[in-house]
Amino acid sequence: MILKRFRFRLETVLRHREALEAQAEQNYQRAQVMVEEANVKIRAQETRRREAMQIAPDEITDTARLQNRERFLLTVQAAIALLEREREAAGIVADMMKTELVAARQAREALSKLREKDVAEHTFLTLREEQNALDEMATMRHGRV
């Protein structure tokens, strides 16, 4: 008796969905990196602002230096606002990538479950065939005795 090897009829589709899931995972990770990079840049600008703020305005006697400090603070604040918008945009992209990842994962899991069901059915049928063959051999032996 030759046992049939299991072959999942949707194996190529499953492999494709696994590849799509892996790509979605990479896209999501890249989007998360973009959010974190924006956070790092914001923290750096906030540090620059804090350092400039540590110098009290009454300590600066030169009017030009005071004006430079105020312009610097405005520039840093504008940079922070721009970076916060970039972080928000990166967060939106990360949310979209996460949604795509979840969808890709669900699509792959649906096929994986179908494959597991087919494996279980194949195993059951194979074992049943083996048992039937054993029963037939036992019947033949008892018939000859």
Domain count: the total is: 1
Q: Give the tally of β-strands.
A: 0
Flag low-confidence runs. Answer: none
Order of helices and strands: HH
Characterize the largest beta sheet: strand count, sense, and whether it forms a barrel: none
Helix content: over 70%
Strand content: under 5%
Detailed description of the structure:
There is one protein chain. The protein has 145 residues and is mainly alpha-helical. It has two helices and no strands. It has helices spanning 11-53, 63-144. The chain is rod-shaped. The chain starts with 10 loop residues before the first helix and ends with a helix. 10% of the residues are buried.
What features would you highlight for this structure?
mainly alpha, 145 residues, 2 helices
How do the helices and strands line up, and which of them pair or pack?
Layout: H1 11-53, H2 63-144
Provide a brief overview of the structure.
By secondary structure, the chain is mainly α. It has helices at residues 11-53, 63-144. It has 2 helices and no strands.
